Predict the 3D structure of the following.
Amino acid sequence: MTERADLPLDGIVVVALEQAVAAPIATRHLADLGAEVIKVERVGEGDFCRNYDDAVRGMASHFVWLNRGKRSIELDLKDPRGQKVLGELISRADVLVQNLAPGATQRLGLDPEALISEQPRLIVAGISGYGLEGPYAEHKAYDMLIQAESGLISVTGTPETPTKTGIPTSDIAAGVYVAQAVLAALFRRERTGKGGVIDVAMLDATAEWLGHQINMQMYADRQVPRMGLSHAAIAPYDAYPTQDGQILIGVQNDRGWEQLTRDVFDRPDLTSRSDLATNPLRVANRAETDRVVSDETRKWTTSDLTERLNAVGIPAAQINDLKGLVAHPQLTARDRWRPIDSPVGQLSALLPPMTFQDVELPMGSVPALGEDSASILADLGYDDAAIATLAAIGVIGSRNSRRSP
């Protein structure tokens, strides 16, 4: 059984003024590592991510994914009494994470520099769309807009159709960098005693992930083309037909090409072809490369060819859908699924990707809106009467007029 003291962030308190994806994925990772994450939500509405869909037995799939292991408090931050409660929460926090609209934290009186001057050990991490300065600083942003502005859409899709990625890449990139930066700031605080202010711009995070494409543009004056499943700089690298389906093959060097043609296809004549001998030649002659590879892959079933490719060490994969991922034998064999609690009953969720050999990271419950409002206020020293009063006037959700038992 996991001991709390063995969790990397046991004892760390995080206050989260968050919505949608970018900040919630950052704080969920911190919760996975053992931090107490207090999620501050709008009274009656909550994080608007709660209402994206009702696919998980009435709960939104994004919310279930991003918010397990957190405590939820409904708080009216337009009311001075709500702001007072928020201030009290921050006063006992190690970390404040927010991804509110531009200017919102200032309107709440939460200037990061002022907070740090009052609490030198506090770490304040903010996610913005475009950064805190420059002509786009005040622009609202969400994932698709950043994917477009960053050029990510220009390299994603087929030659005919630019496409945003099937996951919120810019949100996730920013959130992961926030989690990483918070961990680094906590480590620095252990050495220096000082907190600090962190800003992660979604545009910067996405641009970082486009490093190869940026270098191609700056130094070769080339826009990397959209290639579908293929790769602009490597061949063969695509989905190829088999007797009963398709298989994805990626050969990243000339040694791999020799292994593919000689040891998998039993075609040493292809190995010695001068027009396909090096990766630059195979890329230049991509149509011919793909033709000769397809002629060979058609001779095999997907299963048999996968076995031959794996035996030689050629990177290959079958093309799964989401049903295939849920049933993936590798996830099952490695026991990656765990039950988690939620307002709609027990659900299944994947273990966090960070695997510690000595301790299993916790899989906390998904909170109902304002589920912990009363208990959080009690932790701050509010008695039952004060909590009931705040509920009656709408500063917290009315369902929380009594402490949880």
